[in-house]
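Researcher: Please predict.
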Amino acid sequence: MGKMMMPRRALGRSDLDVPVFILGCGNFHGIGSTVELFGRGDDRDTSFAVLDRALELGITMFDTANSYGGGVSEQWLGEWVAERGVRDDVILSSKVGSRVGPGPAGHGLSRGHIREQIDTSLRRIGTDRLDLYLAHAPDESTPVEETVGAFAELVAEGKIRYYGVSNFSRDQLERTLSAADDLGVDHPVNLQHAFNLLAPENALETADVCVAGGVGFTAYSPLAGGLLTGKYRANQPPPPNSRMTLRPDGVASTTEATFEALARLETKAADHGVSLSALALAWAVADPAVTALVLGPRTPEQLTGMCAAIDISLTETDRAELSGIAATRPPDA
């Protein structure tokens, strides 16, 4: 697969025209923000190869966080952007809020922490502004008005173009939007949350709030931590170095009902003549509540295979059938 036409969509009420597939950089050096796994993720050469392939495939948005790989993810992304000379051709997004230091000041969404961390992130990435800056997770110990006010300050200062939130519930998103209205500042333009065939509730529960508030929904874990790739099998140990081996809490539970549903989904994928992962991504990206999917491939080849989903056309009947199969597993399975 060479240069391809990657579909693009507006992100909420912003002028960011984002590709429907976003490259997640959480595997660079580590596996997300898990301290024990720093150094267990992709090395620099592999990370650069994945970034190069993403650009070839038309993926021009890159999602990282100040806590990924202990900051190395931001650093490597910045080095790649500089070496390739593509800063003005790509959309850079990072996050703040996860623990990056000891004590109460080492995490959260206080004004002081946000202002400190944006400067650290900009320095690591080697840029004067981020296109998007997300609250990584809710911080109930900080008034939402303080958080929104801090993001608005960064927008006014030109350090970020837009802000958003990640892992916020419907109620937390509504409170964020209300705080922005009360302060007379712009709404967040992005809600990022887990969403996939096996766990569709986050997009469903927030869809109307996102539409009303001008908030685009981007989905991470669209393959359910690897479950929807078919690489995990019932009564078999997970592959070495797989996410289930390294970070089992990042994978949906694997009950007998889950594997039965996965087997039926694999049959449907075979009927369509595609891989299970491509079918699952095609289902997710076609959801009317979803703006884009955040992909976390470990190799350029994996990313190429994921992008095959763009060429899969699913009817509403197809999507409903797949949803029905996935729903045969109990919600808490």
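Model: DSSP finds eleven helices and ten strands in the chain.
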